[in-house]
Design a protein that fits this description.
By secondary structure, the protein is α+β, with helices and mostly antiparallel strands. The protein has a domain at 3-71. Helix content is 49%, strand content 16%. It has helices at 13-22, 51-62, 65-68, 75-97; strands at 3-7, 25-29, 38-40, 43-45. The strands form two sheets. Strands 1-2 form a two-stranded parallel sheet.
Length: 100
């Protein structure tokens, strides 16, 4: 992984940790990166760049029941189950792409 996106609440030590431990750059998606305002409902709706990628990925992870709630006591267990969920997604997509 070379680049990670996060919202403004992840400012601080996370960028340093990702750079030092994983060699990964953290890019904060802020309100300055807002696309043109789109009127929707009562007020303006502002679209944040790259936000849909994060939301879509979280939805894919949440499709696995164990990841849909916070059942795990250890962060390492949660991380392992997320890896299982994303690995299953990649394997199913690879199988579909291979014609099976």
């Amino acid at each position: 992984m070379k680049l990670a996106w996060a919202d403004g609440s992840y400012r601080g030590d996370l960028a340093v940790f990702l750079q030092e431990e994983m060699g990964c750059k953290l890019e904060i998606v802020t309100r300055r990166d807002v696309a043109p305002t789109v009127q929707q409902g009562d007020g303006p709706f502002k679209v944040l760049a790259h936000r849909w990628i994060v939301e879509r990925t979280l939805a894919w992870i949440g499709r696995h029941r164990r990841n849909s709630k916070d059942y795990e006591h250890l962060p390492s267990s949660s991380s392992a189950w997320m890896l299982v969920a994303m690995s299953a997604l990649m394997v199913s997509r690879a199988a579909a792409g291979a014609g099976g």
